[in-house]
Amino acid sequence: MYAYRMDDNVAVLTMNNGENRFNLASIQAFGEVLDDIVDHSGANALVVTSAHPKIWCNGIDLDWLLPEVQTGGETSMNRFLCNMYKLFKRLLTMPMPTVAAINGHAFAGGAFLAFSHDFRFMRADRGWISLPEVDLGMTLGPVFMAISKKVMPVPLLEEMQYCARRLTAQECAERQIITRVCTLETLIGEAVAFAKSLNKPRDIIQRMKLETLKPVLTVVDETIASLQK
User: Fold this and answer.
1) Cα Rg for the chain, rounded, in angstroms?
2) pLDDT in tens, 179-207
3) What kind and span of H or E run contains 6?
4) Are the CB atoms for 180 and 194 separated by under 8 Å?
């Protein structure tokens, strides 16, 4: 479902779970791989990509979640949200720079997954970043709102929320949502080369993240605490 390989100091994690949607099993598997990278790999940079030819991450697995909520009600929903938010916090606080190598669509939760990385590289010819929640009758909620604000200014976030606009790689680059536009053939190579250049000590990187992202992490922690009551 999720696996990584080492390329010098860089862990290259590949999401290999179809459209890489979030359910409890996929969240647990993703977290376990991140734990293994931190505890056993010696990596001090991370690149995350997808094995799917068109989709980097397509967000929440609604085909799984809706029956779960119908059966378990609010308890099931809160359990899922807590686990998902903990995964995003795990990425936000990884003790190493993280690079999303976006080789396809990043919709809804997939966009927030990309935003939870420190840097984003995106293929030029195919794939959008989109926040389609308005068309699904949903709001972003405090956690995803906070994560989005770390990447884009409020006027752009309002446009993406209210219009469900799909942004191409070039449009994302113009708005500084992503770091670099690449061809599909060069995407991984450029992302890994960039990650290799970020050869910094884990402890200082994590301390910097905890300081820089403190407002975001506070929202995540408070939201998780409220869902666990």
Assistant:
1) 17
2) 999 999 999 999 999 999 999 999 999 99
3) strand 2-7
4) yes
What pTM does this model have? 0.96
Query: For residues 190 and 209, what is the distance between their CA atoms, to the nearest angstrom?
Result: 23
- Please return the burial class of 229, using the count of CB atoms within 10 Å of its CB with bins 0-12, 13-18 and 19+: exposed
DSSP structure class, residue 167: E
For the chain, the distance separating the N- and C-terminal CA atoms, rounded to the nearest angstrom, is 32
Quick one: tokens of 226?
Answer: 């409220």
Structure tokens at 156: 């752009």
Place of tokens 């972003």: 140
Nearest residue to 194 (alpha-carbon basis) of 47, 3, 76: 47
Nearest CA among 203, 200, 22 for reference residue 116: 22
As a whole number of angstroms, the distance between CA 72 and CA 225 comes to 20
